Amino acid sequence: MKLESLLNVKYPIIQAGMANVSGHALAAAISNAGGLGTIGAGYMNSETLEQEILETNNLTDKPFAVNLFVPSNPTKDKNKITRAKALLEPYRTALGLKDLKIADTNETTDFNEKIDTVIKYNVPIVSFTFGIPTKATIEKLKSHNITLIGTATNLEEALLNELHGMDAVVLQGSEAGGHRGYFTNDKDTMIGLMAFIPEVVDELNIPVIAAGGIVDSRGIKATHALGAQGVQIGSLFLNTNESLAPTTHKQLMTKEIDHTVLTKVFSGKTARGINNIFIEEMKSYEDELPDYPLQNQLTSPIRKEAGLQKETGFLSLWKGQGRIKLQDDLSAEAVFKSLIN
Ligand SMILES: Cc1cc2nc3c(=O)[nH]c(=O)nc-3n(C[C@H](O)[C@H](O)[C@H](O)COP(=O)(O)O)c2cc1C
To answer: Looking at this predicted complex, what is its ipTM?
Structure first.
């Protein structure tokens, strides 16, 4: 089936679900413009997700998606956690943060509650990263006619997505901003879209969606020529009025000299973003830090406070490799329209 029909959209352009960045305003604006908006619900609890879905429904009658993180439930290495806390203390002190309280959440329980929420509110499309949900979850969603989109960073992961019943798969090229969605092994192959798309379309029957470094219609046409039926775009939409990213982050997106790097220091999982002092100072400890999501929980208060204090040195400034140009009109609608010509 063609991707437009599968998603029921005019344009096969998906605004990436971006945790902490894409809420109801951005998702609804993109869906209203003819693309597929996505609520980035990776870090939300089910109550917040419920509110976000209701708000999105108030703003659009077009289809939208919810993006979720497949739980990984890593073993808690106490020594690594103690060490990471000590390494993070200077940043906490610099920001005036006091006691470190980490919410004792269970990834799987949270995830299952969010699955129930999307079913309750008839969300038509759910996308996943960091893995493939269990057979039971996939069957449950499918029994409610929900369209499922997975994420792959290599051919093996793309094949697994198809095998487990995903209706479409996002191919996340090495150019992509934000967290890498790999789940088959820790050695991310870092294949770029130019090689990745043809490799996968030769092997898969489900539609593939290209993600990474796409910032204009040329990128869309190029990925289409290679066999992708649609695109998923993050960084360009982060830089819109409707995105929830801190203004300081948005301002850096269009800086003349952009230098993105891959780092695990914020979350324990590799992600691409703009280099800063936190990444530079912490990079020599990268392999000693706790796995995702433990390190993410430890740095979360630092990132939140850094955002409030406009301290970009300690923020996770996720960005892909595509050059984002300055635009006068940064409404999501105008930015979306700039992609269509
Ligand atoms: C700020 C930011 C946050 C992101 N958060 C998520 C997320 O929550 N879930 C997800 O599946 N992908 C996430 N991604 C990755 C996107 O799905 C996509 O792979 C990436 O944005 C494509 O590259 P681009 O940023 O160059 O467009 C994020 C990307 C960015 C830039």
So the answer is: 0.99
